[in-house]
Design goal:
It is built from eleven helices and eleven strands. The chain is of the alpha/beta class. It is elongated and about 60 Å long.
């Protein structure tokens, strides 16, 4: 039975999640979230380690708020045998290395909890709308907007834009995604067709973590068009090239943590509680 939880690194979502878990009756400590918390962390005494979402590891270390350097291998080496490790992406090689040395860990992922993934997409979409409206002096109902990608995030974003009256184009590789977008009132196109509609666009919102907007499409966009990068690296377009062409760009990672960190923390807490129970069975 899991009683002792160590929240290892992260952003404001993790910081707010810790007391929420404590309110559910767990004994909770943090590492890399509060000044000096490394002195009381007790990695070996934790039944479960909760690492950051969406990336448990970035640049070779676990992200922290305090500036504490945390190497994921060192953290897992100190973990108790049989500890549950809940994390975002990037931790798998370190967990595998630990298991190769005889360290038995139960690795779980936030993205395996479907309600959490959907809530995160909806929070991201709401935040993206806020960011979009903050960058223009025209109502969205008067604009033509391209959303690249029609996964959970892209779809949630496109539906909100349409509800506000925008003309919404959706660029998606998968035929099923384009068909769904069309059925829901969007104007679906293939990524290679973006250049053809680019001259009539007022804004581009990318949700795809892969290059989908090429140089030809960037050159076809009207000068001053806003491009918001909402995905993770390697990103959907070359921001440097876009700026050289007179386009406006903003790279906006981690939207839920920046825009609605309390709601995001609550979603993480609910996912953590469910996944920890499943992992301990």
């Amino acid at each position: 039975m899991i009683r002792n939880i160590l929240v290892v690194g992260g952003d404001r979502r993790a910081l707010l999640m810790a007391p929420m878990l404590a309110g559910e009756g767990y004994e909770v400590r943090t590492l890399g979230l509060n000044a000096g918390d490394e002195k009381l962390a007790d990695i070996a005494g934790a039944d479960a380690l909760l690492l950051p979402f969406p990336f448990a590891v970035r640049g070779g270390d676990v992200p922290t708020l305090t500036g504490l350097t945390l190497h994921p291998g060192d953290v897992l080496e100190c973990a108790a045998d049989g500890a549950v490790v809940l994390a975002g992406s990037g931790l798998e090689p370190y967990a595998a290395a630990g298991e190769a040395l005889g360290k038995k860990l139960k690795l779980a992922h936030y993205v395996s909890h479907e309600p959490f993934v959907q809530k995160n997409a909806e929070l991201s979409a709401e935040a993206a709308l806020f960011e979009a409206m903050d960058r223009t002096q025209r109502a969205l109902m008067d604009q033509a907007v391209l959303v690249t990608g029609y996964g959970r995030f892209g779809r949630a974003l496109a539906l909100r834009l349409k509800a506000l009256g925008a003309k919404v184009w959706v660029a998606a590789r998968r035929e099923a995604a384009r068909m769904l977008a069309g059925e829901e009132g969007m104007h679906p196109i293939l990524p290679q067709e973006i250049a053809g509609v680019a001259p009539e666009l007022d804004m581009v919102l990318n949700t795809v973590p892969a290059p989908v907007i090429d140089g030809k499409a960037l050159k076809a966009l009207p000068e001053g068009t806003w491009l918001l990068e909402l995905a993770s690296a390697p990103y959907g377009f070359d921001a440097g090239e876009a700026k050289r062409l007179g386009l406006n760009c903003a790279v906006l990672p981690g939207l839920p943590a920046r825009y609605a960190c309390e709601s995001a923390a609550l979603a993480m807490k609910e996912a953590a509680m469910r996944l920890l129970v499943e992992a301990s069975l």
